[in-house]
Amino acid sequence: MIHEITPHVYDNAFHICTPKDSDVALYYAGKDMLIWQNEGAIDLPRFEQLNASAKENAEYLFSIDELGFYLLKAQPQVCETYAGSITMQPTQLMRSADQWIGFAGITGAQLSRWEESHKFCGKCGALMRHSSRERALVCPECKLREYPKISPAIIVAISDGDDLLMIKSPGSTTNRYHLIAGYVEVGETFEQTVAREAMEEVGVKVKNVRYYKSQPWSFSDTIMVGFTAELDGERTPFSLQEEEIADAKWIRREDIVLGTDSSSIGSEMIRNFKEGK
Ligand SMILES: [Zn+2]
Questions:
Q1: 9 C-alpha vs ligand 1 centroid, how far in Å?
Q2: Domain residue spans in the chain?
Q3: Residue 11 CA to ligand 1 centre (angstroms)
Q4: DSSP conformation class of 255
Q5: Residues 20-39: what's their mean pLDDT?
Q6: How far apart are the CA of 258 and the centre of ligand 1, in A?
Q7: What is the distance in A from the centroid of ligand 1 to the CA of 122?
Q8: Which of 72, 119, 120, 197 would give a disulfide with 182, using CB separation of 3.0 to 4.6 Å?
């Protein structure tokens, strides 16, 4: 999965510090980010490749091993030596880089989006400031405190013996089937979300809901919480939630077609079921 970057170690403890020349500069604009391309390899730009002014207003986000990752608030000037190799590219290109670099790129993007959408206090409209003691934005007028946006969502592998319940989304062009997933509503436990989503999306009652693993999914500001569950009772015709589900099927273990992408918790859970784990 995309966050599994061993032997590298991600450390997101809060610090206020200034970048070293060898540290990484993250700069985002819309769906693009600044990257360094060198003979086909993709990496993230370092401060030593940028003009000294890039260090001004660089905000420390996290480290991976000894490398610090900083968010830039303005597009930096690139040193002449590196002109042309440091360019804005769509963020999906990060999937072509080493996995730990890709993980850093999408994690930084989530924090960048959060800051961009919380420049002003939602209560009184004042300009927000960074907290000096934790990762939060604070209103200097009314003291409203905003933390990074992380939306919890469940994903569930529902089985009935050797069959797995899989669904297809409307507008899907790949004919790919996937697992039931949905955002947690206010006042719910994760287990209640699993039961509600299964009933709402396909009209299926579940039992034996068990936690599997969780996965940060920065592309949608989400933390995915994975569960397994079993069909409760006899099979009945599906009752599809038309806006969200185009089709639903019970698919036998041996008939499941695996996709090539192994970055998501959903793909890992489908593979586990197929392999009888
Ligand atoms: Zn305020």
A1: 37
A2: 10-116, 118-149, 151-274
A3: 31
A4: G
A5: 93
A6: 49
A7: 7
A8: 197
Q: Distance from the CA of 50 to the center of ligand 1, in angstroms?
A: 36
The token pair at 120 is: 């002003």
CA of 131 to the centre of ligand 1 (A): 14
For residues 201 and 167, the answer to whether their CB atoms sit within 8 Å is yes
> Distance, CA 147 to ligand 1 centroid (Å)?
14
CA 132 / ligand 1 centre spacing (Å): 17
What are the two backbone dihedrals, phi and then psi, of residue 172, each rounded to the nearest 5 degrees?
-70, 130
**Average pLDDT, stretch 230-237?**
95
**pLDDT surpassing 90 at residue 274:** yes
CA–CA distance, 228 with 209 (Å, rounded to integer): 6
Report how far ligand 1's centroid is from the alpha carbon of 57 (Å): 23
Q: What are phi and psi of 22, to 5 degrees?
A: -85, -5
Cα 255 to ligand 1 centre (Å):
56
pLDDT (0 to 100) of residue 171: 82
Contact status, residue 228 vs residue 165, Cβ threshold 8 Å:
no
The CATH code of the domain at 151-274 is 3.90.79.10
**DSSP string spanning 58-125?**
PEEEEEETTEEEEE-SSPPPBPGGGTTTEEEEEGGGGGGS-HHHHHHHHHHHHHHHHHHTTSB-TTT-
Q: How far, in Å, CA of 215 to CA of 267, rounded? A: 12
Mean per-residue pLDDT of the chain: 93
